[in-house]
Amino acid sequence: MFWRGGRPALCGLMLLVLLAHSARPPEVPAQALPPNRGTAADSEWQDYDFNEFPQWAWDLRRFEVIAVGAFPVAYFATSLIYDYTLFGMNNFDPAYSLGTQRDANDIAIIAGTAAGVALTVALTDLIIELVQRKKREKGKEPHEEAELPRPSP
Question: DSSP strand E in the chain: where?
Fold first, then answer.
């Protein structure tokens, strides 16, 4: 029987009950509209308008997405380059093969370098985008309203 298993069986039973309890969907009460908010039809969600945010906010968001997205790739490449450099500097001693001689300082160097590379990639993209936007704006006629392409939300 299950209850004769002792303390490990009791811990297992408690874990099973906890998992079963946390797996059920949460019961969230309906939220009432705040006072002076209007009707429920007024509070429905609407898509963002492209003119709702200034251009610098779109540029900042693009910079952030590219920097965060470039970090894992930069970390992987920096880690390989660091390991191969360490391996080569120690005359290809097997004790220094890939990933064997890392301490907290090495990981900090790799992560810092990867962050710098990711920020450099994002900054380069931002500069290229700003230069291209200026060229597009110069090519438009003065009476023509400049409509800048915006990323999809």
Answer: none
Q: Give a yes or no: residue 22 inside a domain.
A: no
Q: How many CA atoms lie within 13 A of 10 on its CB side?
A: 3
Closest CA to 107 of 135, 140, 79, 76: 79
Question: Is pTM beyond 0.70 here?
Answer: no
Q: Decide: 44 and 33 in contact? Cβ < 8 Å.
A: no
Asked if the structure places residue 2 within a domain, the reply is: no
17 domain-assigned = no
Tokens of 2: 């299950």
Residues 62-89 have pLDDT tens digits of: 999 999 999 999 999 999 999 999 889 9
Question: How many whole angstroms from its chain centre is CA 8?
Answer: 40
